[in-house]
Specification:
CATH superfamily: Aldolase class I
CATH class: Alpha Beta
CATH architecture: Alpha-Beta Barrel
Order of helices and strands: HHHHHHHEEEEHEHEHEHHHEHEHEHEHEH
Helix content: 40-55%
Number of helices: 18
Number of strands: 12
Oligomer: single chain
Distance between the termini: 58 Å
Strand order of the largest sheet: 4-11-10-9-8-7-6-5
Largest sheet: 8 strands, parallel
Bound molecules: ligand FNR
Shape: globular
Number of domains: 1
């Protein structure tokens, strides 16, 4: 098993007979040649496998039969299928949260605590789920693709497949700084990309990265601010931060030259001014949870914020994102002095159902981002798998709108949702 328990290829503690006898140098060569690249080898005969060898040996498509697509009817089905295909350390790298994974569960669970309050006798024969964004872009439905690092480990086409699928579905993908495909190559696959930026200690390098992003045609920069340091992800520690055995994250990076480019952990809000001074692209901030920070982002005239706790991979036991959203919207409305806030608010974390998306939009989000569901789609069936996952969420979302009596995104408001502790009585006053 990758990264675990495979000590020199033999599971028995008793040395086998042929292990005792001396091997000739020609035998040694044959043994090494026969060994799969990722198997443990002694330092004296170790020839590191190439990056492609490592990745090819571990792509799920080369390991298992494709599942029957008819049986994959929801996001959970895709997760189960991806889990059965990926090796343990890869699955855990993508699925896990930090510490006790309290926030990981809560990101999903809080959606179930919010109740929908449908309206009836509404003509729902025509539903328009499109959304216009402050970047000037329009998406077909309020579901966007979150930045997820090192996607080549899930499929040989990696970020390219995700970009193609997002474009085909009429939505935006945000490409990670920790991408396994060069940003220019991903940009050849879609005209609707945003770029997620980690501000690095080396500011000249950061600046050159932004220039490359602009030249490649990305439409916005999303600065992630909740990861001055990676969270405590214990399965990655147990698995020695390995994806498939032998592949460390830094080996997959393309736009960063691994260790030389550390994420800057001395950032403050002033650094956002620096970013804005060196680019004309719209700038959004990802990783806001406190209403106080949302207001600061608004004062800095950001084009948008993404209410996010990094998919529960950073600080554990933080408030879940959907729990934070109402207070953030309230704070922004008070700051703006109007209900029309000149800044897009997005949300991610734990969104697995169309009804989750409807709740988020009714509570003020322009659109949601999904992370892991995309990774599962990519693992199970590459570009088509990503399209299928987005289609499932889109279909569920349209059904939720239909059944709640909502025909356009402008109609979404908080009268359709009941938060924990609220009573239906309170909803009447919102009419
Ligand atoms: C992420 N996320 C992330 N965010 C970011 O800004 N830059 C990155 O490189 C990554 N990489 C990354 C890898 C993996 C494996 C995961 C699971 C997440 C966070 C991501 O953009 C998003 O905030 C969450 O994934 C949203 O939560 P869900 O949809 O996965 O529950």
């Amino acid at each position: 098993m990758f990264g675990m328990g495979n000590k020199g290829g033999s599971s028995s503690s008793k040395p086998r007979q042929q292990d005792k006898r001396k091997t000739t140098s020609s035998e040694k060569r044959t043994t090494v040649a026969k060994q799969k690249p990722y198997e443990k080898q002694t330092p004296s005969n170790f020839t590191p496998p190439t990056r492609d060898e490592l990745l090819n040996a571990h792509h799920p498509s080369s390991r298992k039969r494709k599942p029957n697509a008819d049986q994959l009817v929801n996001v959970q089905d895709y997760q189960t299928s991806a889990r059965s295909q990926l090796n343990k350390s890869t699955y855990e790298y993508f699925s896990s949260g930090s510490d006790d994974q309290v926030t990981l569960a809560e990101n999903q669970n809080f959606y179930a605590k919010i109740k929908l309050v449908p309206r009836v006798f509404v003509n729902v024969s025509n539903i328009d789920t499109s959304v216009s964004l402050s970047t000037g872009q329009k998406i077909n439905f309020p579901i966007m693709v979150a930045p997820i690092s090192s996607q080549e480990v899930l499929n040989p086409d990696g970020e390219r497949a995700t970009a193609r699928a997002s474009e085909a579905m009429g939505t935006i993908m945000c490409t990670s700084t920790l991408s396994s495909v060069r940003l220019e190559k991903t940009a050849q696959e879609s005209k609707s990309l945003w770029y997620q930026l980690y501000i690095l200690r080396d500011r000249e390098f950061t600046k050159s990265l932004i220039k490359k992003v602009e030249a490649a045609g990305y439409k916005a920069i999303v600065v992630t601010v909740d990861a001055p340091q990676p969270g405590n992800r214990e399965s990655d520690i147990r698995n020695k931060s390995m994806l498939p055995e032998g592949v460390t994250l830094s080996r997959l990076l393309t736009d960063l030259q691994s260790e030389t480019n550390e994420i800057d952990n001395s950032l403050t809000w002033d650094d956002l001014d620096w970013i804005r001074s060196i680019t004309n692209l719209p700038v959004l901030v990802k990783g806001v949870i406190s209403p106080l920070d949302a207001v600061l982002a608004y004062r800095k005239k950001c084009n948008g914020i993404i209410v996010s706790n990094h998919g529960a991979r950073q600080m554990d036991t933080t408030v879940s994102t959907i729990e934070a959203l109402p207070a953030i919207m309230q704070a922004l409305r008070e700051e703006a002095g109007t209900n029309e806030i000149a800044m897009d608010v997005f949300i991610d974390g734990g969104i697995r159902r169309g009804s989750d998306i409807l709740k988020a939009v009714c509570l003020g989000a322009k659109a949601v981002f999904v992370g892991r569901p995309i990774a599962w789609g990519l693992s199970v069936n590459g570009e088509q798998g990503v399209k299928d996952v987005l289609s499932i969420l889109k279909r569920e979302f349209e059904l939720a709108c239909t059944l709640c009596g909502i025909t356009s995104m402008k109609q979404c408001n908080k009268s359709f949702v009941l938060l924990p502790g609220q009573s239906l009585q309170e909803l009447r006053s919102k009419l």
